[in-house]
Design goal:
Distance between the termini: 63 Å
Helix content: 25-40%
Bound molecules: flavin mononucleotide, iron/sulfur cluster
Radius of gyration: 20 Å
Strand order of the largest sheet: 3-4-5-8-9-10-11-12
Number of helices: 14
Mean pLDDT: 94
CATH superfamily: Aldolase class I
Low-confidence stretches: none
Largest sheet: 8 strands, parallel, barrel
């Protein structure tokens, strides 16, 4: 517990070189509105709406550092071609008084190789269901290339007017998989001991910081636990976090967990929308999901602030600013997090359900969001990410066409 008085949720706060208008960041939720990687008006409107709703900063989800780093072909590659669209996006967010962060990453084993039509990368050779086959361990030259991709992407993010860059070190995407003992079986400088498994993510973060300069914040979305047997857990993620803190390149860490490869429900909790997932997939994948779904998506009951017990261990071990994430839906949860010394909180589903929630919190008209953790928004990432409950209401509220 901190001894200083607890700051108010709506007090501005520093995040590296930035001042955020309050303590709430919209966490990345893949928006599903980048057909073939284009920045669309829908993507811009999505973030303008979050900004208008009172969040201090909105995070543009998963921007790939290269075509091979995409999750699938409808993922944005943050390169020079995307600059004009991204500038419109950051302008729209800024005009609503909020800041904009870009989540940048390489999908690694999570990539859908068939959809991307490019080779994907892994720390060491293994089967990847999204790749529908074997993914080979990356060579040192390939890994050097990815570092350059991160550097170039960071420069594009700055040129596009982003205030912060969030490096994806979670959910078993490429950088996260390097930290995981079950996925990284390398015997070179990037594999083996905990310190060696931290080495590649460290190199990337340093490169991003150098490329980004000191006027934008650099943060990491960091896996505390993969949530799978023999995966990364706190005994190894805590020392890695301490190493990253000592490197001094990060302005904050957003604490997450789980694996988009091996345990997709760990960072959600709540209901498993299996039928909706099956329906959203091509027939063959749908059959596979019906069979393997219960194993891939085990049920975890939802609990408010579900990552707090793990995140608290990091708060105690680190001095750097930390962003609490996971099941935050209520004002008292945010107050509690600030009281425990977390500088910010990040919210995803609660703001999908109601992008105006932060304004409502500030006006004290509500003290709890409406998200029911049904997770039916998850399969909508293929058709334009939305809360299906809110969507149903909007349809009902839409004006009737003139007779
Ligand atoms: C529809 C949807 C899409 C998501 N896409 C991403 C993503 O692109 N990158 C990421 O790091 N997390 C993604 N997440 C995870 C959220 O950022 C967050 O970690 C998770 O939902 C837990 O926070 P919450 O309880 O506030 O929803 C997504 C979540 C949802 C619901
Ligand atoms: S669909 Fe809506 S209510 Fe259900 S989890 Fe997603 S945001 Fe919450």
């Amino acid at each position: 517990m901190t001894t200083a008085p607890t700051p108010s949720i709506f007090e501005p706060a520093r995040l590296g070189p930035l001042t955020l208008r309050n303590r709430i960041v919209k966490a990345a939720t893949f928006e599903g509105v980048m057909p073939r990687g284009e920045v669309s008006d829908d993507l811009i409107n999505f973030h303008a709406e979050v900004a208008r709703g009172g969040a201090a900063m909105t995070t543009v989800a998963y921007c790939a550092v290269s075509p091979g780093g995409r999750v699938h072909r409808d993922t944005l590659v943050m390169d020079e071609r995307a600059l004009p669209g991204l500038r419109r996006l950051t302008d729209a967010v800024h005009s609503e008084g909020a800041l904009a962060a870009a989540q940048i990453g390489h999908a690694g084993l999570v990539a859908n190789t068939l959809s991307n039509k490019t080779k994907t990368l892994a720390p060491s050779t293994r089967l990847s269901p999204p790749a529908m086959g074997l993914v080979k361990g990356a060579t040192l030259a390939e890994l050097d290339g990815v570092v350059s991709d991160f550097e170039r992407t960071a420069r594009v993010a700055v040129d596009a007017g982003f205030d912060a860059i969030e490096v994806h070190l979670g959910h078993n995407y490429l950088l996260s998989s390097f930290m995981s003992p079950n996925l990284n079986k390398r015997h070179d400088r990037y594999g083996g001991s905990v310190a060696k498994r931290a080495e590649y993510p460290r190199r990337v973060i340093e490169a991003v910081r150098v490329a980004a300069g000191s006027s934008v914040a650099v943060t990491a979305k960091f896996n505390m636990s993969d949530g799978v047997p023999k995966g990364l857990w706190l005994d190894q993620s805590l020392p890695i976090a301490q190493i990253l803190e000592a490197d001094g390149h990060l302005d904050a860490m957003q604490l997450t967990g789980g694996s988009s490869l091996l345990n997709g429900m760990y960072f959600f909790r709540g209901e498993v929308p299996l039928a909706e997932f099956v329906a959203s997939q091509p027939k063959l994948v749908g059959y596979g999901l019906k069979f393997y779904g219960p194993k891939l998506f085990p049920t975890y009951p939802f609990e408010e602030g579900f990552f707090l017990p793990f995140a608290r261990q990091f708060r105690q071990a680190l001095r750097m600013p930390l962003i609490l994430l996971g099941g935050i839906n209520r004002v008292d949860t945010i107050e509690h997090a600030l009281d425990e010394g977390f500088e910010f909180v990040a919210m995803a589903r609660a703001l999908l359900r109601d992008p105006q929630l932060i304004n409502k919190f500030q006006a004290e008209s509500v003290d709890e969001g409406l998200c029911i953790h049904c997770n039916k928004c998850m399969p909508t990432i293929y058709t334009g990410t939305r809360c299906v409950v809110r969507d149903a209401l909007v349809v009902r509220e839409a004006p009737r066409p003139a007779q």
